[in-house]
Amino acid sequence: MYLKCVLCVIYFSVVTSRTIYVELNPPSTEQLSFLKKYGYLPEEQGDADFAYTPQSLSEALRKMQAFAGLPETGALDDDTKKLFRTKRCGVKDIDSSPSSPRSKRYILQQAWDKKHITYRVVNGSSTLGKSRVEQLMEVGLEMWAPHGALSFSRVDSGRGDIQVTFVGGDHGDGFPFDGPGRVVAHAFPPPHGAMHFDDDELWGDNPEEDEEDVTDFFAVAVHEIGHALGMSHSNVKASVMYPYYQVPVERLHMDDILGMQELYLKDQEELVESTESPAVSLVPRFTKAASEEEENYMPDLCMTNYDTLQVIHGKIFVFEEEWVWVLRDRNEMEDGYPQRFHDVFRGLPSHVSIIKTIYEKQNGNIIIFLLGRAYWEFDTSFRAIKEGTLSDYSIPEEVSELTTVFLSNYNNKTYLIEDERYWRYDERAGGMDRGFPKEMSMWRLVPYPVDAAIIWQGDTYFFQGPRFWRFDNELVQAHEYYPLPTAQVWFHCQSTADMDRYITNDGP
Ligand SMILES: [Zn+2]
Ligand SMILES: [Zn+2]
């Protein structure tokens, strides 16, 4: 079956010209199964008739390279080939199952529904005794504990919430290990919580030891504990949740900490969300039967993911659900906010419950994009003047919604972003620039889909989830010190000690 696929690849490559790398260098069976195993290529659908095109292979390589932090060539270059054979964790990098809903939020697993968690070390490895494994596990768990307000205790019999086992080869969970090298461990999210270490590795406990054959147990254990607590892989290379083996591991990265906070420290938001009515209601607001709790409810910028933000008339507008905050500068809130955005942008239909993205045109008018293809235009005093659709911007019909729109100060063009690609619109010429859409991956180190993009004091910033990046227009990539946490840097939210250290780090 694989042989057949490879032949298809060669055939397709001959008739298309832009895939020369794949043509010269088709991926091996082993490399194909790597791409599928970690979620970069969809699993074959049914029978062998399904073949990967050079385009889909090149795209898969590009995604794998992007996740690993390599140049996104889409080709099987030497660095990429090396990656296929690097020691790593066996858990998927990307959830590629077609049923997984596309979400702008992070792909996070579920958290434990309790704060005290037990663990049990069932055995040691042939090279690392059980009591040493127990010691190292304790240290590893303590690294994660404060960031989820968790506590851990060891049990010596029965079943712990997290069970640590050394096993080799096929060990009955459908994810067989592969002998020495490559996959060294994997772990399951709550409520399963098992951590399996490949017993065919030579496990060691001295990260200074520079033996290629020896795998440092602690470095791998800290990563696998992350999975057992519900964390997914991260493409941030310095983070513990980066999928490829890195040694030594001494502390968690901000990326790991933010992930934990999102999993474990947002009860307040979850409580509120679970008591809310459905987000979209066609009932006019003033007749909506609201409980007292709902009426008093106001989201907290420090606790929630805002929907979008934008600079309008020189101030920062932050949108979350039906609320808007206005800041005159970083961390300087205007008095009297939040307000309902319906009270600020007058004339917006009352059923509108969320602002998808918003930007200011060159003439000072404001465009609000809603869910779907509709938008509303407001004059400079925030009064609705007309309704339109994405067709007015020459956005193709198949695009159901934009994620972010912003006007660049670099070239005075309007960028219209849909998840992984973007168009460039020339407001003065009244038309789309040629050669678009382009891939978001062209903007190196910028995450996508982005929740917002703004120009602030001459710099371009991208926002996603709880983090933001500053973009270098000349280098066409994000500045290396980013991302930083949005709430602490922009919204004057209280920091934890870890965040303080990170923010005051001799950064930009
Ligand atoms: Zn992993
Ligand atoms: Zn296993």
TrEMBL record:
Zn(2+) 2 binds at residues 89, 223, 227, 233, 241. Ca(2+) 2 binds at residue 161. The active site is at residue 224. Residues 108-266 form the Peptidase metallopeptidase domain. Keywords: Calcium, Disulfide bond, Hydrolase, Metal-binding, Metalloprotease, Protease, Repeat, Signal, Zinc, Zymogen. InterPro entries: Hemopexin-like_dom (IPR000585), Hemopexin-like_dom_sf (IPR036375), Hemopexin-like_repeat (IPR018487), M10A_MMP (IPR033739), MetalloPept_cat_dom_sf (IPR024079), Pept_M10_metallopeptidase (IPR001818), Pept_M10A (IPR021190), Peptidase_Metallo (IPR006026). Disulfide bonds join 302-493. Ca(2+) 3 binds at residues 178-179, 198, 201. It comes from the Eukaryota. Ca(2+) 4 binds at residues 307, 451. SMART domains: HX, ZnMc. Its cofactor is Ca(2+); Zn(2+). Hemopexin repeats lie at residues 299-348, 447-493. Can bind about 5 Ca(2+) ions per subunit. GO terms for cellular component: extracellular matrix; extracellular space. Zn(2+) 1 binds at residues 171, 173, 186, 196. The keyword Transport does not apply. Ca(2+) 1 binds at residues 199, 201. Pfam families: Hemopexin (PF00045), Peptidase_M10 (PF00413), PG_binding_1 (PF01471). GO terms for biological process: collagen catabolic process; extracellular matrix organization; proteolysis. Belongs to the peptidase M10A family. This is Peptidase metallopeptidase domain-containing protein. It comes from Chrysodeixis includens (Soybean looper).
